[in-house]
Amino acid sequence: MYDIIIIGAGPAGLTAAIYGRRAEKSVLVIEKGGFGGQVTFSPKIENYPGFGELSGAELADKMVEHAISLGAEFELETVTEIRNGEIKEVITENGTFQAKTVIIATGAAHRHLGVEGEEKYLGNGISFCAVCDGAFYAGLDVTVIGGGNSALQEAILLSATSKKVTIIQNLPTLTGEEALQKILREKENVEIICSSVVSGFEGEDALTGIKIKNTDTNTESTVPCDGCFVAIGLIPATDFIKDTVTLNAYGYVDAGESCKTNLDGIFVAGDCRSKEIRQITTATADGATAALAAIKYIG
Description:
Elements: E1 2-7, H1 11-22, E2 27-31, H2 56-69, E3 73-76, E4 79-83, E5 88-92, E6 95-104, E7 108-110, H3 118-121, E8 126-127, H4 130-133, E9 141-145, H5 149-159, E10 164-168, H6 178-185, E11 190-193, E12 196-203, E13 207-214, E14 220-224, E15 227-230, E16 234-236, E17 266-268, H7 280-298
């Protein structure tokens, strides 16, 4: 039996593992995919304190190495269920692990468009975070896919540095707040295209354009661009715990800054938690908070 089982090996889970081991607690990290989480898809990171510039894979490797050096154990497994009790049981496809506490750090995945060429340009022309990658497109033409608040906020941020921002919305109108729409309509370098869906991406080695189809006229055209920011929502990886802990209406674990769920001894950290800002730094902050809470719970 372990003191702490952490489900997910992204920045939140790895930080929790580091804090848990520094407190001399036995720690098991269970990850179903690649260690590092979504950060590994970022070709360049320039906003993580202490590192001027490095790739997401490099940052993930450093975090994993740190956790291993302190004695954290790792299992490559898919968790299917958490059974609550005085002793927690984490059920995987191939076995069961027991712990005094559990930290859920499974993250959230960006919704993809699922169209031709998308996979080719992920991390190399297609991004999901203007805060993270907007600076790479300073003075260039970019597109933003989506019309909700997140998409409009991305567009506003990009409009400050990019040459031109084109917003592509599949509905007849934008759905984000009117205040955000007003800001964008007043910007000379922003164009809004509604009633259009993305049908594919163009380019050889680099992205050069997006193919769109107007849903009213059924006509197709191409929007030239150097980069594309997809902002059509996130999918939290919480389906396996929907009957265990309380989730909000969007599927995120309902927990505040304390990272405590509605169940004693079960905590949450990172992008799968209900919160406003999802960055690497906020994930690591959650990891520290959740681990310290678990350590205190164990006593």
